[in-house]
From TrEMBL:
PANTHER family: TRANSCRIPTIONAL REGULATORY PROTEIN NARL-RELATED, TWO-COMPONENT RESPONSE REGULATOR. GO terms for biological process: phosphorelay signal transduction system; regulation of DNA-templated transcription. SUPFAM superfamilies: C-terminal effector domain of the bipartite response regulators, CheY-like. This is Two-component system response regulator. Residues 144-209 form the HTH luxR-type domain. InterPro entries: CheY-like_superfamily, NreC/VraR/RcsB-like_REC, Sig_transdc_resp-reg_C-effctor, Sig_transdc_resp-reg_receiver, Tscrpt_reg_LuxR_C, WalR-like. Residues 4-120 form the Response regulatory domain. One of its GO terms (molecular function) is DNA binding. It comes from Amycolatopsis mediterranei (strain S699) (Nocardia mediterranei). Transmembrane segments: none annotated.
């Protein structure tokens, strides 16, 4: 089954290049394009793709706002940020908006294709360079209104493997537990961290020092 993709970028040349690049992958199907954030939301709502490749800086609605709208309005669609901007704030805001991953436009064709497949499969796509920037940003101490509930050692193990991009099945094999048990740990972690998805869980855990640099 093909992975259905929408491209959102305000530069026609960039979109054309991505179409040509992704069309070389037999399991990819480009179903739509958008030239601004508002159009990206509308096209995604109409076509229900598996993955949206989203630029950050666009007119009408920027990539972060468009991502938040898509995540809220089109369940099951994954948004992969593809941009030239790698500042800490851009990354954090995109992740907080619900993006499934963050990729820079200097990525190789192989890296881009792998990222699209990983995002479509429900995995978190953060390159080592992006993770490093997140860690550096989140190291800065911030006052917490209340002491957060601590993760158990097993939950921490599971979340570390999530941060490495492993699927639930992969984590089960790594820790010699069932996939159902992995899902149970994830549900408990989401509740403790007060998040709704894997990417946010990794981000909040780094902020709380679960993954010390």
């Amino acid at each position: 089954m093909s992975i259905r993709i929408v491209l959102a970028d305000d530069h026609p040349v960039v979109r054309a290049g991505l179409v040509g690049l992704l069309a070389m992958e037999a399991d990819f199907e480009i179903v739509g394009e958008a030239a601004d954030g508002a159009e990206a939301v509308a096209v995604t709502a109409a076509l229900r793709p598996d993955v949206v490749l989203m630029d950050l800086r666009m007119p009408e609605l920027d990539g972060v706002a468009a991502t938040a709208r898509i995540v809220a309005e089109v369940p099951g669609c994954r948004v992969l940020i593809l941009t030239t901007y790698d500042t800490d704030q851009n990354i954090v805001h995109a992740v907080e908006a619900g993006a499934s991953g963050y990729l820079l436009k200097d990525a190789t064709p192989e890296e881009l294709a792998a990222a699209v497949r990983a995002a479509a499969g429900g995995e978190t796509v953060l390159s080592p360079a992006i993770v490093a920037k997140l860690v550096n940003h989140l190291r800065s101490p911030a006052p917490a209104p209340a002491e957060p509930e601590l993760l158990t050692p097993r939950e921490t193990q599971v979340l570390r493997l999530v941060a490495r991009g492993l699927t639930n099945a992969d984590i089960g094999r790594e820790l010699h537990i069932s996939e159902t048990t992995v899902k149970t740990h994830l549900v408990r972690m989401f509740a403790k961290l007060e998040v709704g998805d894997r990417t946010a869980a990794v981000t909040v855990a780094m902020q709380r020092g679960v993954f010390p640099g």
